[in-house]
């Protein structure tokens, strides 16, 4: 089976329209996947839908949309729309997100994430299968909802699963796991727990850029994530116990600078792909050898230079 390789959409700092044009060219050069991310920029479904319309063969996905910021019925509507726009090439990725995003930014309550995920999956799966949903759970509910037009092609569902409870849920209820901030060891841990599921991962990738500048940028990118309990535990599980504890303690005390500084070069280099293009390709293969089915490169530049990011996208292309 040919190796899969994807990229994150929209491609920072390109607009959605520009990313669609780049996606068409990337598709022609051998990329197999394009997956959106949702934090505080583009809406995940909107980006996936736009690229789904603009392309012909790329598998399109969301990695991930938060389960607390939309009710399950609305998630099903977004997934059905993206599936129709891509003519059956869409995958839905769901995750708990973080307390900062859910509670502070979105004004919702971040409670019982495993239960919320299980109940969301039940509602969304039933709706996407064309059923009339009547579900009353502990954290989610829907009465009498039915999609106006259920997808003709089944929508695969992935979940973000960093800990053992989410991994077990993934093996019971989903088609795959969407990883983030997993080193090769993190991939091996997940593969051991979910041997039969597809594993995808969005991985930050800096091609042909100054190593020190890349590390500085990554520390600021990763710091807020490592302060989130779930990510912090996952980083510790991957063999970075000291760094995880130091970041947690510094962040809890309000010392953001110390938290950023607590991330060692070894940790940053393990989490991000960087260096000359051939080395970046070797790291992508190392992730595959660890058990990752579909690497999704999130291409970045420390200077946010469009030309260098576009060049890197095509340099890493399989074709």
Care to give the gist of this entry?
This protein has helices at residues 16-28, 44-54, 72-85, 99-105, 113-128, 164-173, 184-193, 211-226, 229-237, 241-252, 256-261, 265-271, 277-290, 306-315; strands spanning 6-9, 33-36, 59-62, 65-66, 90-95, 133-136, 141-145, 157-159, 176-180, 198-207, 273-275, 294-299. By secondary structure, the protein is α/β, with parallel strands linked by helices. It has an eight-stranded parallel β-barrel with strand order 1-2-3-5-8-9-10-12, surrounded by eight helices. A two-stranded antiparallel sheet has the order 6-7.
SS-based class? alpha/beta
Q: Give the distance, in angstroms, between the N- and C-terminal Cα atoms.
A: 15 Å
The residue ranges in which pLDDT falls below 50 over 5 or more consecutive positions are none
Query: What general form does the structure show?
Result: globular
Give the helix tally: 14
Q: What strand line-up does the widest sheet have?
A: 1-2-3-5-8-9-10-12
Order of helices and strands: EHEHEEHEHHEEEHEHEHHHHHEHEH
CA radius of gyration is 19 Å
Assign a percent range to the helix content.
40-55%
Mean pLDDT: 97
What does the main sheet amount to? 8 strands, parallel, barrel
- Share of residues in strands: 15-25%
How many strand units? 12
Describe the model.
The protein is an alpha/beta fold and 319 residues long. The protein is 49% helix and 18% strand. The strands form two sheets. The protein has an eight-stranded parallel β-barrel with strand order 1-2-3-5-8-9-10-12, surrounded by eight helices. Helix 7 runs parallel beside helix 13. The chain is globular.
